[in-house]
């Protein structure tokens, strides 16, 4: 018997990959995500490969996962894929404490982020 399958939230020409709990603030991660939005996947992979940001390695891994999902799970052509969406969300925030002068304490927040990348197959312009 099993549970009825849920309707797919993406279109038939789209695939996505989600990375949860990346150890970086959402604001910093969004700078890298904005760098690849709307680009063809081969250009986006090249930009991430040569980016000097630390988190670009993890974003590249997520993009490669979305490409693999598109190819293997949804039979999309890799050469026609475009990064349709790349958005960032907040995850948990670890709170830590740092001793300060005169017996006080400084609060340190260590934020985490979630990253979602959606790739879409577009037909070639003739």
SSE pattern: EHHHEE
**Count of the domains:** 1
The low-pLDDT segments are: none
Give the number of helices: 3
Number of strands: 3
Helix share of residues? 25-40%
Work out the strand percent. Answer: 35-45%
Cα(first) to Cα(last) distance is 48 Å
Can you summarize the main beta sheet? 3 strands, antiparallel
Oligomer: single chain
What integer value in Å does the Rg equal? 19 Å
Q: Quickly name the level 1 CATH class.
A: Alpha Beta
Question: Going by CATH, what is the homologous superfamily?
Answer: Ribosomal protein L22/L17
Q: Widest sheet: strand order? A: 1-3-2
Shape: flat
Structural category: alpha+beta
Kindly describe this structure.
The structure is a single chain. The chain is α+β, with helices and mostly antiparallel strands and 126 residues long. It has one domain: Ribosomal Protein L22, Chain A (Alpha-Beta Complex). It is 29% helix and 36% strand. It contains three helices and three strands, in the order βαααββ. The chain has helices spanning 26-36, 41-49, 56-72, and strands at 14-22, 81-99, 105-121. A hairpin with a 5-residue loop joins β2 (81-99) and β3 (105-121). α2 (41-49) runs antiparallel to α3. The chain is flat, with a radius of gyration of 19 Å.
Key features?
flat; alpha+beta; 29% helix; 3-stranded antiparallel beta sheet; Ribosomal Protein L22, Chain A; 3 helices; 126 residues
Please specify the SSE layout and strand pairing:
Elements: E1 14-22, H1 26-36, H2 41-49, H3 56-72, E2 81-99, E3 105-121
Antiparallel strand pairs: 1-3, 2-3
């Amino acid at each position: 018997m099993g549970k009825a399958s849920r309707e797919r939230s993406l279109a038939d020409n789209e695939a996505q990959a989600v990375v949860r709990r990346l150890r970086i603030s959402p604001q910093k991660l969004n700078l890298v995500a904005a760098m690849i939005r709307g680009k063809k996947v081969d250009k986006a992979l090249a930009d991430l490969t040569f980016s000097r940001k630390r988190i670009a390695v993890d974003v590249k891994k997520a993009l490669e996962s979305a490409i693999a999902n598109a190819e293997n799970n949804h039979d999309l052509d890799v050469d026609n894929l475009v990064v349709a969406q790349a958005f960032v969300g907040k995850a948990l925030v670890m709170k830590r404490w740092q001793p300060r002068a005169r017996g006080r304490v400084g609060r340190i927040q260590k934020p985490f982020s979630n990253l979602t990348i959606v790739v879409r197959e577009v037909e070639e312009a003739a």
